[in-house]
Write a structure and sequence with these properties.
- The protein is mostly beta strands.
- It is built from one helix and nine strands, in the order ββββαβββββ.
- The protein is globular and about 45 Å long.
- It starts with 7 loop residues before the first strand and ends in a 6-residue tail after the last strand.
- The model has no long low-confidence stretch (mean pLDDT 92).
């Protein structure tokens, strides 16, 4: 499955006795990928994913500036929201998906920097 349009993406790391990873969560429209993501969760399918993030540069051109890559991810939460058909008639159905992953890589293409981390719940 390639090319899923997402509305937004959230991810956080916190610090306790070590770096604590939290699932990547993103919102997307209900689309042709929705049933496939549902079965992937049902069957605990292991996925690799790339989130390419674009921005508009000073010349007004869309440019790829940041990438988040997850390896050996599984869907840990999938929630579908269908808006009220009368009070929110113009709103489209959307779903929120959370992924737990084995490893993550962040790449800032413009600056040429990148980093890598492994989701490891061990205390050091």
């Amino acid at each position: 499955m390639t090319g899923i349009f997402i509305y937004n993406l959230n991810h956080s790391l916190t610090w306790g006795q070590h770096a604590k990873h939290h699932p990547i969560t993103f919102k997307k429209p209900v689309d042709k990928s929705s049933p496939l993501l549902g079965i992937a969760m049902s069957e605990n399918e292991v996925l690799d994913g790339i989130f390419d993030i674009y921005r508009t540069n000073q010349s007004g051109i869309q440019e790829l500036y940041y990438t988040i890559k997850v390896i050996e991810a599984t869907i840990v939460d999938l929630a579908v929201y269908h808006p009220h058909s009368i009070t929110h008639a113009g709103a489209q159905p959307q779903e929120t998906i959370s992924l737990r992953y084995k490893s993550i890589t962040w790449t800032h293409h413009i600056a040429g920097t990148s980093a890598y981390s492994i989701w490891d719940d061990r205390v050091y």
